Amino acid sequence: MFDFCGVKLRSRIFLAPLAGFSDAGFRAVAESFGAGLMYTEMVSAKGLCYLNPGTAALIYRESDAPCAVQLFGSDPEFMKRAAADGRLKDFPIIDINMGCPVKKVFSNGDGSALMARPELIEQVVRATAEGSGRPVTVKLRAGIEEGHPCVRECALAAVRGGAAAVTVHPRYREQMYGGHADHAVTASVKEALAVPVVANGDITDAESYFEVRRITHADAFMLGRGALGRPWLFDVLGRLDALSDDEIYTEDGAVREDASAYADELMRNAASHFDTADAVKRHVNILLKILPERTVANVMKLHLCHYAKNTPHAKAVRLAAARISGVEDVFAVVNEFLS
Fold first, then answer.
1. Which of 55, 70, 187, 236 could be stapled to 95 by a disulfide with Cβ–Cβ 3.0 to 4.6 Å?
2. One of 100, 150, 154, 305 is an active-site residue; which one?
3. Are residues 63 and 183 in the same domain?
4. pLDDT (0 to 100) of residue 338
C-alpha cells in the first residue's frame, strides 16, 4: 500500500480529473484496472454553494474506492464553504484546479488564471483546508505564458497555504492541450517541495512512463487522455511501477532491455485481453443511475471514439457514433465494431 496525504492507496498510478470524461462510470472502470486514486471532473465551488442541480452527478460515488473531488474557484470564501459542504464528506481529499486553460474558466479568474496571483493561491488553499478539515492538494500548469514558468513559485505558495501535495502538468496555459509536456519543469518542482509531487502529462504508455519517472522522480503519476479508450493502462503501469529503479534503468539512465521487453509484453497482453463491451456496459449502467439516457448516450460517443482509436474501425465508429441517440445504439456500435 502507498500512503498519499494520509490516504492508503494500492497504486501510485492515478486517474486525472478530466472534464467530460472522469465521470463516475469511467472512474469505476479505471478502478477495476487498478487506478490507485481517481479524481472527479472539476466542480464549481459556487455551483456547489448555490445548489446547482448539475453538481449531483459530478460528485456521485459508486463505491468507497479512494477518490478526490476537484473544486475550481478563486474566491476564498466560496472555496471554504464548498469544501465544508456535507455532500463532499466521503471524499478523503479535496483537490483545487489551478490549471484549466479553457477561456470561460480563465477569464473568470479561475483555473490557470490563479497562477498569475501566488498570494491568492495561498489564500485559496488555506481557506479550502479550513473548510474541509481534510488534505487539500492542487493541480498546476507550468505557467500561463509559454517560456515563462512560474509553477515553482505557485507550488510554494500553495504549500504555505497548507497544500498536502501538488500535481504538475508541465504545459503552459497558452499551449492548451497541444505541444509537449516538459517534465524538467516537474522535476524542478519536486526538488523545491517537501510535500509529494504528482507528475501528469504525456504519460501514454510504458515508454513514456519510464521517461517521466526517470526525469521527475515523482511521488505518483497521473494518467489523463492517455488512459481514454485504454483503461487497462493502469494495470500495466501499476505493475511496472512496482519495479525498482535498478530493475528499470542502466547506470546511464537508459531503460534496461529486459525491462523494456517485460513492458512490451504487458502492453500487448493487456490490449489483446481487454473486453471493450464489458467496460462500456459497466460505464453505461453507472451513468444511467444519475443521468438521463440521452445524456449518457452523448457522453459515450466520445468514449467509443477513444476505444476505436488506432483500430481498423476508427472511422466507422466515428460515423456510427454521430448517429447514436440512446444506449442501445451505444451497445450496437460496440457489438459491430469493438467486440
1. 70
2. 100
3. yes
4. 95
CB 128 within 8 A of CB 135: no
Residues 279 and 29 sit within 8 Å (Cβ to Cβ): yes
- What are the tens digits of pLDDT across the range 21-56? 999 999 999 999 999 999 999 999 999 999 899 999
Same domain, residue pair 188 and 332: no
- Residue 100 among the catalytic residues: yes
> What are 103-119's pLDDT values in tens digits?
999 999 999 999 999 99
Residue 207 and residue 139 share a domain = yes
What's the confidence (pLDDT) of residue 194?
Answer: 98
Q: Could you say which residues of the chain have pLDDT below 70?
A: none
Answer yes or no: are the C-beta atoms of 235 and 209 closer than 8 Å: no
CATH of the domain at 180: 3.20.20.70
Domains identified in the chain, total number = 2
Residue 70 near residue 17 (C-beta atoms within 8 A): yes
C-alpha cell at 159: 504549500
Phi-psi region of 201 (alpha: psi -120 to 50; beta: other; left: phi over 0): left
Query: Hey, what's the cell of 150?
Result: 512560474
- Kindly state whether residues 238 and 308 are assigned to the same domain: no
Inter-CA distances, 20 with 43, 57, 217, 224, Å: 12, 12, 30, 12
Q: How far apart are CA 31 and CA 283, in angstroms?
A: 12
Residue 268 lies in a domain: no
Neighbours of 265 (CB within 10 A): 12
Amino acid at the residue 134 = R
pTM: 0.97
DSSP for 46-79 reads HHHHTT-TTHHHHT--SS-S-EEEEEE-S-HHHH
